[in-house]
Amino acid sequence: MTCTEFLAQMTDYFDGQVEPELLSEIQSHLCECHHCEILVDTTRQTIRVYKNHQVYDLTEEVRERTVQRILAACTGRKSVSASDQR
Amino acid sequence: MPTVAEQTGTEEVHPDVALVEAARNGDQAAFEKLVRQYDRQIFRVAQHITQNREDAEDITQDVFMKAYGKLDQFQGNSKFSTWLTRIAVNESLMRLRKRKTSRTVSMDQDVQTEEGSIPRDFADWTPDPEQQYSSSELGDILQKTISGLSPGFRTVFTLRDIENLSTEETAEALGLSVPAVKSRLLRARLQLRERLSRYLKRKDGSVRP
Predict the structure, then answer these.
(1) CB 3.0 to 4.6 Å from A12: which of A17, B7, B17, B182, for a disulfide?
(2) In chain A, how many domains are there?
């Protein structure tokens, strides 16, 4: 297996969706090719670090305000306070 | 017209199906539960695509308001969260198109580029990036890095790797084929890896030949 051939299979390899025969070829390639071994390791780290560290999130205050606005607009339920209105 | 429950049968029905059915029949508490279940996810998707917090807040409201108006159209063939995500992606792309400052405005723009398709940096990374930077420093690095990707790439990465949608769900939310999602995901991951490598590779000079 060449590095290009491995790259074409990398997404399925990460998803555990390669057939046993192909998996064995990939594993052999990774044992022999240090560049691809590093590629796999650092790509896994890329995914992990983004998963573990949410870049964006709603603060509780904004979240509550947003939920109240949605409910007021959709169901006619009154917002918790007048300051919630823009 | 058959109900969602009748269409999907009684086996393995996702709990959201009952909540949607109840919300459709005017149960406000059921709708609130759905909102609170997915508001943060919708907000994150919107901010990843638009890269703008105020837009993302507005989009979060718009998505649930649109969804509420279209509850009758939810067939239960996909997960409710995937259906919501599809609305969020469309709303976010529309918002990008309206903003003149945005360089790219479509899921397809820039995806033909070969940038990042061929890995070039084979340096080892520090084993624990979280130890190398403070939480806020790392947050800034991750934000700066993902914002450099085109919307088509960062959307696929966000849905698949950050929000944990399956490849099939991501394809459905984006209106793409499964092979197209796989191809874009590979390139998004490679581009992010290449860009993050500047910050996370070992500082002791152990760059591989």
Answers:
(1) A17
(2) 1
10-residue mean pLDDT profile of chain B (209 residues): values are: 49 83 91 95 94 94 95 87 95 85 53 61 77 88 92 93 94 94 94 91 59
Predicted local confidence at residue B155, as pLDDT = 94
Which residues of chain B make contact with A34, given a CB cutoff of 8 A? 122, 208
Q: How far is B203 from chain A (nearest CA, A)?
A: 15
Is there a single domain that holds both residue B94 and residue B8?
yes
Residue from A3, A18, A56 to probe the interface with B (highest B Cβ count within 10 Å): A56
Using CB atoms, which residue from B162, B182, B197 is nearest to A50? B162
Claim to verify: residue B94 and residue B143 sit in the same structural domain: no
Is the ipTM above a cut-off of 0.90?
A: no
Q: Could you list the residue range(s) of the whole structural domain that residue B83 is in?
A: 4-98
pTM comes to 0.84
